[in-house]
Design brief:
single chain, mainly beta, SH3 type barrels
């Protein structure tokens, strides 16, 4: 029996297993981390990206995700204001 994962998706759509492990970089070339999991949401998915600052949730929306290149293993994002700063470790008080 053929699994749904084996069926081709429309251009620009990907199965979760294709995205897990891809590197996430900004349009400026900064490495953010690797996609370790994906949260399904009602309006959009969120990529869980693990990097040097811990885990960051990246919304899988057109304004943020600029490109997904399976051949190079890179997801390029344009972070919206405050997105990456939300997860920076705060110094203890």
């Amino acid at each position: 029996m053929e699994h749904s994962q084996d069926n081709p998706l429309p251009e620009g759509q990907f199965y979760h297993h294709q995205l897990i492990g891809l590197q996430v970089k900004t349009t400026g070339g900064d490495y953010i981390g690797d996609i370790v999991d994906i949260l399904d949401g009602k309006s959009n998915d969120n990529y869980i990206v693990k990097g040097a600052t811990g885990e960051i949730l990246i919304p899988a929306i057109e304004d943020v995700v600029q490109s997904i290149n399976l051949d190079s293993g890179i997801v390029t994002i344009e972070p919206i204001e405050g997105l990456l700063e939300l997860n920076k470790k705060k110094p203890p008080k």
